């Protein structure tokens, strides 16, 4: 059995044992531009972890035809009425798509096309979401526990955070009467 | 909550409720070229289902930058000493990669590069496998129950079954003393 090997990565629990794992942590202090309620933000501890991402890069960044894999863990929490969420981005090569698969928790996947039309898909354990090309995407934790999801995307997609960092999405996801709702982004 | 919708697809159990699902069934009679033991093959019922594939194509085949998703279910069984397995293919655009995630059962992922070097990775529930570009891939069920796994691949990858159909892999996976082992393919 010379050429038979164990799998390189094990789903979720043992992801850490895999090779080429990149770890990224985003704290509140790194996300000052994405939350609208600046007064609520100012009263919170900047060291609070909002989310972690563990990614596997089996080929070099920019490789055409390759794929990357990662798991994002968003902690529960809010800034004012706004749920803890990811920065959100377009892909640098705009037409690159992506898949998200929800592992645990409750979330919302916000999707905005290049004309500024925003919609959201509910994320529940087991749900699979296709993010089309030319679509900005951001994920919010709307539950009481960790929201985690796996992602698969082209290794040449790249990330464009700038557009969203500057203008945000056309709608934001806030809690009203205990429920997540999309409302127009007054920042725009 | 105008623009908040349910997820399009639910992992595995409810995949059937999703839109744009394509279903494919491969029976023994469709796979006459992939098993080496022709005498054993001739004695089996050609209507026996070897595997099913359910796929989701959210964009058109050939779309650059898009991704496809599917689940393959390989039934347990053997033809002589050779395990039930998929046809196996290179991608038509050779440099396209793919991810497999094992859902249930026990399997082996056979990988062969363009120089004819074959290796295998064990598939167990939760294992994640990166299939690099320029690499033929085939999956065998080496357990007693269904082997199922999800796959994510570029929507412009395409399938080249011809090369494998003609020559097979350089090594085949057979059962010896109750264990799966790779041995040279005498057909080559």
UniProtKB/TrEMBL annotation, chains A, B:
One of its GO terms (cellular component) is cytoplasm. SUPFAM superfamilies: RmlC-like cupins. It is an enzyme of class 5 (isomerase). Transmembrane segments: none annotated. One of its GO terms (biological process) is glycolytic process. Its EC number is 5.3.1.9. Pfam families: GPI. One of its GO terms (molecular function) is glucose-6-phosphate isomerase activity. Pathway: Carbohydrate degradation; glycolysis; D-glyceraldehyde 3-phosphate and glycerone phosphate from D-glucose: step 2/4. InterPro entries: G6P_isomerase_prok, RmlC-like_jellyroll, RmlC_Cupin_sf. It catalyses: alpha-D-glucose 6-phosphate = beta-D-fructose 6-phosphate. Gene3D superfamilies: Jelly Rolls. CDD domains: cupin_PGI. Keywords: Gluconeogenesis, Glycolysis, Isomerase. Residues 26-179 form the Glucose-6-phosphate isomerase prokaryote domain. Belongs to the archaeal-type GPI family. This is glucose-6-phosphate isomerase. It comes from Mucilaginibacter agri.
């Amino acid at each position: 059995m010379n050429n038979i090997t164990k799998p390189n990565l094990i789903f979720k629990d043992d992801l850490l044992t895999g090779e080429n794992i990149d770890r990224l942590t985003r704290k509140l202090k790194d996300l000052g531009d994405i939350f609208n309620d600046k007064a609520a933000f100012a009263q919170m501890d900047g060291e609070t972890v909002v989310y972690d991402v563990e990614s596997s890069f089996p080929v070099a960044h920019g490789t055409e035809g390759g794929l990357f894999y990662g798991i994002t863990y968003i902690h529960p929490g809010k800034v004012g009425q706004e749920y803890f969420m990811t920065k959100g981005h377009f892909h640098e090569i705009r037409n690159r798509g992506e898949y998200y698969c929800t592992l645990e928790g409750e979330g919302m996947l916000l999707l905005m096309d290049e004309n500024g039309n925003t919609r959201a898909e509910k994320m529940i354990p087991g749900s699979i979401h296709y993010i089309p090309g030319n679509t900005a995407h951001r994920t919010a934790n709307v539950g009481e526990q960790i929201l985690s999801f796996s992602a698969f995307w082209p290794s040449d997609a790249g990330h464009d955070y700038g557009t969203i960092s500057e203008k945000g999405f056309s709608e934001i996801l806030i809690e009203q009467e205990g429920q997540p709702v999309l409302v127009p982004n007054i920042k725009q």
